[in-house]
Amino acid sequence: METRANYVLIGAFALAGFVGLIAFFLWFARVELDRQFTYYDVRFPSVSGLARASEVRFAGLPVGTVVDVRLSSDDDRVVVRLEVDAGTPVRVGSVATIESQGVTGVSFVGISAGDASAPLLSDTVEGIPEIEPGRSVLQSLSEDAPEIVSEALAVMRQLSEMFNEENRGRVEMILSNLERSSEDLSGALDSFASVTETIGQASTDIAAFTRELEPVISTVAGTLETFDGALSEVGDLAGRVGRTLDEGDAVLRAAQSALASVDSFMADDAPAAVDEVRQTAAALRTQLDTLGIEAQDLIAEFTRTGRAATARLTEAETTLARADGLIERLDTTLETVERTAASADALISGDGAEFVAAATRLAEDDVPRALADLRAAAASARTTADDVSGLITLEAPRLFDDLRSTSGTVRREVDSLGTEARALMATYAETGAAATARLSEAEATIAALDAALARVDGTLASIERTAAAVEDIATGDGAALVADARTMIDTANAALVSVNRIAETDLPTIIADVRAATGTAARVTEQVGADLTAAAGRIEGLSDTASTAVTEAGETFARARATLDAIDAALVTGTRTLDAAERTFDGASRVLDEDITPITTDLRSMITQLEATFATVAEDFPQITADLRAASASADSAFAELEAMAREARGPVSEFAASALPQFSQLAREARGLVTSFDRLVRQLERDPSRVLFRSPPPEFRR
């Protein structure tokens, strides 16, 4: 019996199953019918493990497949064509590399993203663009592994050669030398510690010296203050001497005016007076008694004038005696200065020899010579005063006797003199009064001179105290004043030369002028006595003699004025010398006040810094030595570990190269075969899926 079958229904079910199966396979193969692709070529030097249908990934994401692999006709490279999704942003800077995935080593093409700012590669060229090939990590490792292994073996051999027995001995020798150096350095640090103690002791000594120097500085300051007082006193003395000289100039001007009046009288009025005397001689005889009384008054006036002159000479003698005492004080002061110079010589026996020689020469030659000249001048002045006193004492009585003897003759001649003789006597009375006034002024001048000598005495006492203070300074630290003292001595030498020149040239002239004036006064006195005997006919000669005497007196006063000017110049020179000495002591005081303290402070700070530095070095040096030893030990252990690691890795590396590498090669071949089989299966599915899937025998109903 034949089987009944609905062929239409069977055919419909068969077609539905076939369509469903095709849809399943399409879904399984992820076939996208509306998908668009872009093709790229890559020229690889080697495509080991890569074949058609291999996956293409962009930044790790699958974007296409390899559609063709062929040899290039231009060079020995392999051209691989990639089918990539059209939306994949392959840019100009993108690089294609052959990567391996998983343990099986399935190869795929990886494309890097490149620079986001670069343009797309498909927009820059026409046709099929080419992506720049690159090397993957596995390719770099597989290609560079032999070179790396060879270099590692070379390094290991060099390390083995480096750490041979000879080098080990050298390292041990270096370590032993370093240990000995550390011991020597420790000894050096101990010695340096002793040096630090010595420096500390030196700083203590310097501090003690500074404390001892402070009283010396205070003494110098007191000495400078005393010297300032002495300088101020000398300045006051110079001012008083100037005022005294001004008063002397006023006296000289008054005397010159008086002498000018006498000269005019002698030149103009004397002849007329002589005529009038002759005419009035008779009238004078009647007035003899009155004239006798007036003559007695005149003689009394002259007597008072002589007494005043004697008193002034006595005061001058007292003044000269005080001057002698002052000279003796100067001798004592010079002896003190010589002792001070000897002390200074002990201080500056090296650098100050020249200064001591100059001071000794000044003390032994110039100053005694100047004092001798002053003493001679004082003796001459005393002799002159004695001569004047003797002249007044001896000649005045004789003159009075002559006057008394000739009084009768005068009475006979008085009548011819008349009123003009009375006027002449009145003029002489005024002259005597003026002389008395001048002597009174001379008394004030002598008093001022006495005060000046007292001030000089005080100044000498101050100088003696200053010399004592300078001697104290000389026993301390006075070498810094040598240069300034030389300048002061040169100035003093110049002043002494000026004083000596004045004493040698002007003082003898002054004394000679005084003696000449004294002799002239004596001659005038004798002439007056003789002329009074014959007054009638010799008045004209008397006038000439008086005129000559007045002229000589004027010349004497002029010379005295020149001498006073020279003395004034000498005082100015002495003032400059004292100013130079004051500046010298000011400089010394400034040095002691300003320079000693900063120098001491700098020394102390420097010593403190040295101590801190040495302490820091002493503290850090053991740590540095320990660090060096630790570094050498670490280097030794590191080299030992490298050597052990190389020795241990030699066997595994050899075993890996002998057994593992061939197995990896076999695994790669099997993986390639598997991939090829999968590739063939995929191609068959693409060509005829139904044939691959439904290769079973035909159904029974077809039979």
Automatic annotation (TrEMBL):
Name of the featured protein: Mce/MlaD domain-containing protein
Record-annotated membrane-spanning stretches: 7-29
UniProt domain Mce/MlaD: residue ranges: 39-114
Entry keywords, A to Z: Membrane, Transmembrane, Transmembrane helix
Alphabetical list of Pfam families matching this protein: MlaD (PF02470)
